[in-house]
Amino acid sequence: MIPSIGPETLLMFAVGGVLIYFAVAKEYEPTLLLPIGFGVLLGNLPNSPMNQPEGLLHILIEFGIDTELFPLFIFIGIGAMMDFRPLLSQPVFAILGAAGQLGIFATLILATMIGFPLNEAASIAVIGAIDGPTSIYVSSLLAPELLPAIAVTAYSYMSLVPIIQPPLMRLFTTRAERRIRMEYAPRPVPRGAVIAFPIVVTVVVGLLVPASAPLIATLMFGSLLKESGVVPQLAKTASNELANLSTIFLGLTVGSLMQADTFLQTQTLFILGLGLFAFVLDTVAGLLFGKVLAIVTRGKVNPLVGAAGISAFPMSGRLVQKVAQEEDFTNHVLMHAMGANTAGQLGSVIAGGVLLTLVTMFG
Description:
Largest sheet: none
Distance between the termini: 49 Å
Structural class: mainly alpha
Number of helices: 19
Strand content: under 5%
Number of strands: 0
Helix content: over 70%
């Protein structure tokens, strides 16, 4: 006998279908939205054994979400794919990585003013990092009841980076600023410095912001696997098999948690709005700090680079290059943007740890 399906379930099927459509037809972050969309369908199947205590999805949730393992596994893979040389050769761009997190803390204040408790406000604010694993890690610890809405919002805005950021870049910079050429003559980075960097960052950040230690340690461990040069097979596994498998399982489980009774609520709309506010403010803050650097350096820094200070690596860095070349096809700012982008990835991880610490202290 076919079970009856209510309008709420049909609506969630439609949500899953929309996510799958965006992944397949529009190619918006398909590696993320495709498994999430399919997971929504699975999670809303009535009486499905997969959603029972001994079912596949329930086991995956217990193994990878409740323990925070899936986000941490993904961070190992991200670290193995990142190159910190552009940042190490131009440390000034660490400022832009920090500026790209200001929207998170402004949103934290706004969310608490609206009426969200501190733990929920912090979980919502971290969406502004545009870093799905960090958002999932923080919200699973602070507000697991909001995890489905926060995860889908974070990954949705990650997929919309190419749509949201370019208009902001054009709005907050002048044509003359976008045409600024940045000479790329990076200082050579010794191999020893590249290897020491993940070790030093792990120790320093782990001591200063202990709550961010799992995130920063996994990210830096992936980087160490790559930069050591002695375990190429492990670096390849981390950046491919481990990252891909974790993304599949994370997407399916997060999607399955998007069930009608918990997702179709007014607070989901607030989460979407506040997440967008944080994202926009992070981008604008990066651009404004980029303009300050342009003034301080007397026109040697293209303010567009500041937009890459968020954590959407490497998408945001590539967008900066694209917008710059719209004004001057021979202008190459990609490596500078990647320096800011890697700084933004580090900044988002540290910001997540700071939020966890704030809630622990004052929540």
